[in-house]
Amino acid sequence: MQARPSPDAAPRSIGGRSSTTSSIAELCAAPRFAAHRPRTPRVIVVRSLGLIALFVPLLTAATCRRNQNGQPPRTQQIFLTVSGLLPLNPTQGFYELWLGSPAQPPPAGTQPWDVPQRFVSAATFRVDTLGVMQRLDGARIETLPLPAAWDGGDVARALITYQIVGQESAPHAPGFKLAAGSFVAPGFIQSTELSAEDGEVAPLDLRALAGDVTLATPTTSDPNDELLGAWFFRGEVAAPQPSLALGQPGALPDSLTFQGWLLERSETGAIRQMLPMGRFRSATGVDSDGGGPAAGTVAAPPFPGQDFNTQLPTGIPFLRNPEIMITLEPALDPAPGLPSSLRVLRRGIDARTASHVALAMSNSAQDGLLPHAAITVQR
């Protein structure tokens, strides 16, 4: 009869692995119920750091399940990268990632964003001037834990929203949507891209938007201050023509509106100063604040725009890295003095820019500058 090894003998090494690992693998491969073997509890002796652990068959089975595929247990986590989001300071709000599950099976032919979803918060964050994600305490984000309350589904959705200050510590619902997308199929690993062009964010063709901006001051009669205003029309002040193409009439939902902005940026791209202009839903007609709070005494033309006569120390071209842009904003804006990241049209201004010249604006959707995210969920 072969002698049984002493319990104090060192573990054998097989193929560079200890006999402990090999024994567990052999045990996993053996039949669970052999007719010629007595059904007595097995005991596996494992040496680790000088300690002896006794595993009864229930724990042995769990060990087998882990080792048969050669992989450690999966960590439930989220990998997220974002771009196109404006930096926010703690007084301006924060961004939030949401994961949704369908509340009910969707009818055939239903658009993903029309399927009612139960959303759970997955992360709150901000971005710095370089676009790097940060936690609300300023720490850099590498990965995110997966919310236990999210169960996915065949048409699961994900959102990135803007939230107002104070909501980070209280229950709340998704705020102003900046990017959205759908997971294509359930599984242990699910990936998708979130876009501002998703129908849940803006149900209109953002790539079709276009327009010009003209530097002029139609609310004053002073010929020397023409660089102190920005207006969305073409031609001379005496006979201006519309310069914006904002989609088909009625395409913009009541929940959204356009707004103009004048920004001054630092060399790193950080916003040093931002002056809001009026809100509007059409290329013609005065906007929400007419000629603006610094306008002169002459009536404003029937177009969106603003004169900054007493708000700026010099003409717009002589500001530091000035930019004129048009954003999409919520009609009921929780932060009316802050531009959203949905910068649909924009135009940089330099010192050579002349007045009374129609300046073509760039389309941010075409240039890939709108909010976008890539997300992978490991379950």
Keywords summarizing the entry:
mainly beta; five-stranded antiparallel β-sheet; 25 strands; 34% strand; 379 residues; 6% helix; disordered N terminus; 2 helices
Radius of gyration, whole Å: 31 Å
Strand residue content: 25-35%
What is the strand arrangement across the widest sheet? 8-7-6-10-11
What structural category arises from helix and sheet content? mainly beta
Order of helices and strands: EEHEEHEEEEEEEEEEEEEEEEEEEEE
Helix share, percent: under 10%
Major pleated sheet: 5 strands, antiparallel
What does this structure look like?
- With 379 residues, the protein is mostly beta strands.
- It has two helices and 25 strands.
- The chain has helices spanning 19-29, 57-68, and strands at 13-14, 17-18, 44-48, 51-55, 77-83, 94-102, 117-127, 133-134, 144-145, 157-163, 176-182, 189-195, 210-215, 229-231, 233-234, 241-242, 244-245, 256-265, 271-280, 305-307, 322-330, 343-348, 359-360, 362-363, 372-378.
- A five-stranded antiparallel sheet has the order 8-7-6-10-11, with no helix packed on it. Strands 13, 14, 17, 20 and 23 form a five-stranded antiparallel sheet that branches. Strands 19-18-21-22-24 form a five-stranded antiparallel sheet, with no helix packed on it.
- Helix 1 crosses helix 2 (57-68).
- Residues 1-68 have low confidence and may be disordered.
